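Cont'd.
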Amino acid sequence: MLTESRPSNSLVHRLDARAKILGLIGFTVVVVTTPGRAVWAFILYAAILLFLMGLARLPLGYVFKRALVVVPFVLMVAIFLPFFHRAGAGGYNLGGARVTGEGLLVLWNAGAKAILGVLSMIVLGSTTGFPKLLSGFEGLRAPRIFILIVGFMYRYGFVFLEELRRMQRAMVSRNYRARWLWNVPTLGRMLGALFLRSYGRGERVYVAMVSRGYEGAVPALNDSRFCLPDAAFLAVLLAVALAIRVTSSL
Amino acid sequence: MAREPRAVEPPSVLEGQDRSISRPPAIAAAGLYFAYPDGTEVLRGVDLTIEQGESVAIIGPNGAGKSTLLLHFNGVLRGQGDLRILGLPVENKNLREIRRRVGVVFQDPEDQLFLTTVGQDVAFGPANMGLERAEIAARVEEALAAVGMAGSEERTAHHLSFGQKKRIATATVLAMRPEVLVLDEPSSNLDPKARRHLVEIVRDLPVTKIVVTHDLPVVHQLCERALILADGRIVADGPVEEVLSDAALLAAYDLELPYGFNLPAPSRGYR
């Protein structure tokens, strides 16, 4: 699941969420703006991320599995891009289609950036944990209502899935199989029932909130501190990335 | 409290107020009437007085209006008729104080634990009361310890068992240090051990307790007095042993003790 952080207590895990959010998002932005021809820069970026993963003791197999989410995206680029660029040096003929050198560069560029971006988000996600991540964004002055909505989504997504699973089991137990077109209305009714249940849940949650003195504003509950190691992490990560970036376009 | 079980009788609201002017009743309702917007009448004149320090069960069959009545105790629902909570009339200006002093633990803990971590959920009430950060942290710690879940601040609700969720839900209310604790079906869906834990936790709390349920053994363990709510009215009121041992009375309102359950001898020592 996207929310599972690796329970561990490494140096990276203990950093303040805000430092990691700013650092790794900043890192990604720097990576994305690097010119694609500077291949060595991307290798250095990857080395930084590998270093962080090692520091956080993330198993490589786990990282690799989660990094697979970029595959469909990169494949899309791979399918379309090579064909829509003018001919240049290099390139190959594949059957009738000509793959140009520039097309390949675009593919490399997009692919490398996507993978590095995803890897840095994996480092962030697997060392921070969803609740900490949320309170980190809260500490960075993200709109409260947004934080609250995402928090509710996280909390009730699981409840919702569990309800869906129970309904499915109840249907299967009575030999329901969605095989033909005329089975579809049942699915529609199921979704309707799920909606009504969620609606009722929403009302009960609201009543529970009001009962504990909710008056329209959720109090900030973020209590983490931004300390020297956090500042150092942020500064070093961004400084190194920027140094690579500047050198790459000289 | 040697009170006779009685059929519907005139309200004792005034009596209650006379007895203790310095300590108004926790709940004093007279002629409380409530109908949902679709016209369904749920409460049709509820008269009841619950003194501070009592532990009272409100029992009744499904659909008797128990949950609706409970939502009046902290002003979430507002019916017609006279209702005073801890001496305060239920009006907009008093709602904040009423909700601080009356804590409601709802039936489904999934509804009560809505934030991302247990610690945030328990801190929600105290934070709404405008307490200082250090005081909030102290209360969270205290409330979690009171329900036997100390140190679980960082956990997320969906990783807890149902019994643990129920205990945390209780903690979210205890953290507000309520004077009146209202429990809606506290034992539903709990396995025997979790249920015993919850009973032990709640029984020793030094607050006024109102338990809304149809689990009669739990009523016997937690309460001294039992009220039967049926058809939107209080139809019986008396010491818990007398109400629970009156098989004819229970049967008349679709209630019964579980098969094989016998009321222990009336000494209060046995629990």
